[in-house]
Design goal:
Oligomer: single chain
Distance between the termini: 51 Å
Largest sheet: none
Helix content: over 70%
TPR repeats: 74-107, 158-191
Pfam family, one: TPR_10
Protein name: Kinesin light chain
Keywords: Repeat, TPR repeat
Number of strands: 0
Number of helices: 11
InterPro entries: TPR-like_helical_dom_sf, TPR_rpt
Strand content: under 5%
């Protein structure tokens, strides 16, 4: 019920249920997950300071209960560092991303698809930091993994091309941006996603790039 309320945007009601569950949690592992869900709700409400305290509680419990290289810990770090990015604490965020990547490489593999999501987030972080070379590096890492492990028309691959196209656009390389967004559009058209939000965004960016190259 709480997850349904969250998806519907009823954040206060969802938080109320999670808070009630927290008082009845039977073990620390369950409590850590509940703290995590409450943190996500707080972030979606735009309140980032309080979730930082919830993160510290969850992190302490997870580090006690899980092994140092447990894949769940990698997922936790990858999600929580987005909060620090929103808070503007880029160094803290980068530190957590690196932890997530390190754990994932050990517990999964060097090129596991889950790593692509982390690389996307790191690329976005470097974008905020103004380091476009690093931004491109991590977007391309994500793209290479998806090319190897996803089908050629997978929406994740379209997202990679979108990210790369946006990066080139910001750098003023409109031709490369146009090429990347064109690849993304082809995928969205193939999977009949022409009414989706990602397709609309990609089409808009493609037109911007085309006008710049016109």
């Amino acid at each position: 019920m709480s997850q349904l309320l969250f998806r519907l945007g009823h954040f206060q009601q969802a938080e109320g249920i999670y808070s009630e569950m927290l008082t009845k949690a039977s073990n620390d592992f369950h409590r850590a997950h509940l703290y995590y869900h409450i943190r996500v709700i707080k972030c979606n409400q735009g309140a980032y300071q309080e979730p930082a305290a919830l993160y510290e509680r969850s992190d302490k419990i997870f580090r006690i209960l899980l092994s140092r290289n447990h894949p769940d810990l990698a997922v936790f770090y990858n999600n929580i560092d987005q909060m620090y990015t929103e808070l503007g604490d880029y160094l803290k965020s980068l530190k957590l991303y690196k932890k997530s990547v390190k754990i994932s490489k050990i517990s999964l593999s060097q090129n596991h698809p889950n790593l692509a999501y982390c690389y996307d987030n790191m690329g976005q972080l470097y974008c905020y930091m103004g380091d476009h070379c690093k931004e491109l590096e991590f977007y391309e890492k994500a793209q290479k993994i998806r090319q190897a492990f996803r089908r050629s028309n997978h929406p994740d691959l379209a997202q990679s091309y979108n990210n790369i196209g946006d990066m080139y656009y910001k750098m003023g390389d409109y031709l490369r941006a146009l090429e990347a967004h064109e690849k993304s559009l082809k995928i969205y058209k193939t999977i009949s996603a022409s009414k989706s939000s990602p397709f609309s965004y990609c089409l808009r960016q493609y037109r911007y790039c085309a006008s710049r190259n016109g």
